[in-house]
Design goal:
It is a single chain. The chain is mainly beta and 344 residues long. Helix content is 1%, strand content 69%. The chain is built from one helix and 23 strands. It has a 17-stranded antiparallel beta sheet that branches. A two-stranded antiparallel sheet has the order 11-12. A hairpin with a 3-residue loop joins β9 and β10 (172-184). The longest helix has 4 residues, at 138-141.
Length: 344
């Protein structure tokens, strides 16, 4: 990732080049089993190596940041059990964990748990999960000097949700979910002193309501729709529109043909322009937009060759909406693609 001819405020010339190289590698292993009736176990481990270096040239002066490599080993496990009773009543709890072992920063434990209770056509569901975001190698690369960046704590996010769903026979299904996200220990730089120092500060929260409805009036026809409403603090939290919605339909005809049409509306929101500076704000905003997409596919099968597949043609942003996800970076207008999938 090379940034060349950047504007330098000191020389007022485009004479700054930053040449970077990142090598991220590792492996993942996972096993899932059902050791007894109604029970399921999953366990595994992820091993990640995050490595990189860069050279910076400003006004003819070369600064070299030598290669750094961080390692994260994260074993995890999950156990769930479903008990079924009379009259369609069931109970399904689940619990799991992920343990993060970092060779530079402190270890973290991320639990998760869930519960689903069902009775005939009604289900209640609740869950909790924690996410962990470790500092990257940038805390060593910038700013210069020994600023105790390796004493940082990882950023964490706690997610809670509770919801209920109702099946109306085979015709429709309605789901309503309330959720809360709480984040803390955001990694920022502080001024003064100089050179600035890395530190953990600040919290944020998001409260939301999500509603989805699926309707299937016929075996070959289905509709879906959903609305999400958010209330975030601070108010400039990026990519947190107060309202977004989606809807679509699927129609299967002539046995092998299937048409999918969907649309997405996203309200105006703050974009990620905030520097990792305690005093910086997300002043950039992006306008609301509506996207419409469609896909026509045809299933193929050659039983004698044990071959199955699909030919498809799809179009995105069929309304040619002018929108962006980051200020100054317009997204594509109307576009499409075609292709095929083969399964042996």
């Amino acid at each position: 990732m090379d940034w060349v001819d950047q504007y330098d405020t000191a020389t007022q010339l485009n004479d700054e080049d930053t040449l970077t190289k990142y090598d991220n590698y590792g492996f993942k292993a996972r096993e899932t089993m059902k050791p007894w009736a109604g029970g399921q176990m999953m366990f595994g481990v992820d091993v990640d190596f995050l490595s990189g270096k860069y050279n910076d040239t400003t006004a003819g002066t070369l600064t070299v940041f030598p290669r750094e490599t961080f390692r994260i080993v994260s074993p995890y496990g999950l156990l769930s059990q479903r008990w079924s009773f009379k009259n369609g009543v069931f109970l399904q709890p689940s619990a799991g964990f992920r343990y993060f072992n970092h060779d530079v920063f402190r270890d973290e434990f991320a639990p998760q748990a869930g519960l689903v209770v069902g009775a005939q056509d009604v289900q209640l569901h609740s869950s909790y999960a924690r996410g962990v975001n470790y500092p990257g190698i940038f805390v060593d690369a910038y700013p210069p000097g020994d600023n105790l960046g390796r004493r940082l704590r990882p950023e964490t996010l706690d997610h809670w949700e509770f919801g209920a769903s109702r099946d109306f026979g085979k015709l429709a299904k309605l789901d309503v979910t309330l959720f809360h996200d709480g984040g803390r220990d955001r990694i920022v730089t502080t001024y003064p002193p100089y050179p600035p120092v890395w530190t953990n500060i600040g919290e944020f929260r998001t409260d939301g309501l999500e509603t989805t409805l699926t309707v299937k009036p016929a075996e070959a026809l289905a509709f879906f729709g959903g609305v999400t409403v958010l209330n975030s603090k601070p108010g400039d939290l990026p990519y947190s529109p107060r309202c977004s919605a989606s809807a679509g339909a699927t129609y299967r005809f002539l046995q092998r043909l299937r048409l999918n049409v969907d649309g997405q509306y996203v309200g105006g929101e703050a974009a990620l322009t905030r520097d990792r500076d305690i005093s910086a704000l997300n002043t950039g905003r992006i306008s609301s937009y509506l996207l419409v997409n469609a896909k026509l596919s045809c299933d193929l099968a050659v039983p004698s060759w044990r071959l199955r597949g699909q030919i498809f043609l799809s179009g995105q942003n069929l309304g040619n909406a002018h929108y962006q996800r980051q200020v100054g970076y317009p997204m594509p207008g109307i576009n499409g693609m075609g292709g095929f999938i083969l399964r042996l």
